[in-house]
Structures are given as structure tokens and as C-alpha cells.
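Box 3.1 A note on notation
Throughout this textbook, protein chains are presented in two layers. The first layer is the amino acid sequence; the second is a C-alpha cell string describing backbone geometry. Keep the layers aligned when reading.
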Amino acid sequence: MTIASQKMTLEEYLNYDDGTDNCYELENGKLVAMPPESELNRRIATFLFAYFLQQGIPSYRLTMKTEIVVSGSQATTRFPDLIILSEELATALKGARISTITLDMPPPLLVVEVVSPGQEKRDYRYKRSEYAARGIAEYWIVDPMQQKLTLLEWVEGLYEEKVYQGDSSIASPLIGVLNLTTSQILAEQ
């Protein structure tokens, strides 16, 4: 739900405080209220967080509730369900006033979005192009409704897509072949 019709700059948005605990994204300069996270999305993101920890990714390089600025001309920000940071990006965020990955910082290595009902266009279309423009090396779209995981790998300026369903092991270009399947991820339902 768009809050105000007047457009905000990125700086205005990053300093915005309405005195509530409401979460907002900025879409093309407009403040948009984010609905509360579904329990299913939270469980899937938490499962993947724990899985990546088990794979040896340090906790300071895994983050939830970190915002990423994805566009410069019409300011847009996103709150992915889970992000894997590079060492350089983790260092850049250390001690930051707010947990926001700005355009002057390196992009995350991997972003995970869990699709919510009615939000398919946002995750498959809009965020795909925004994350591609930001140069994010790997983007996972976990879709509980369609029972699949779409892995997008950044190759020569475009995302190449691989879809995983059922008990096929996920092969991450970033992390390697995982002892992880879509069925295991979606078992969190």
C-alpha cells in the first residue's frame, strides 16, 4: 500500500521515521508499507540461514532484515528474506547506523526471496531486473505455491535460470553442489 503520493529521495527515505514499527520499502520514490512477514516465509528463510551456517558461512556474512538500494534514478529499496554478504560488504556494513546496502557498497553475493501469495510479479519480474541491474551474482526465488526454487546466476550481464523441484540437489555457482533439495526447504511448511 502506497503511503504518500509525493515522491521521496533516497536520503529522505533513509532518514524517515514515522514513530511506528512499520516496515516500508521505497518503490520508484514512493513509500510503500510492507505487510507483516508470513510465518511460512520466516520459517523458510530461517531454515536457509541455519543451513548456510552449517555450510561454514560465518554468521556476520548472513543477514535477514537488511535493506538493499537497487536503483539510482527513481529510488527503490528492497528487503530480501536472506542475504549472503561478501567479506568486503560485511566490513562496509559493520557499525552502520542502519542496516542498508547503499549503491556505493559492493552488491551482496546471494539474495533469497520467498514468494508470498499475490506477490509473484514482484519476485519473478521486478526484483529480478532490479537485482540484475545491481549486479548480484546469485538470486534464489523460493516459491512454496509452485513447489520450486528458481536459481538465477549472473552471467555476462544477464541472469541464467535453473529451476529445482523435488529431490534434485541444488547446485549453487557461488557455494557449490549442496546437500539440499527444494523438498527439504519446502518441508518447513
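The mean pLDDT is 90. The CA atoms of residues 31 and 181 lie 36 Å apart.
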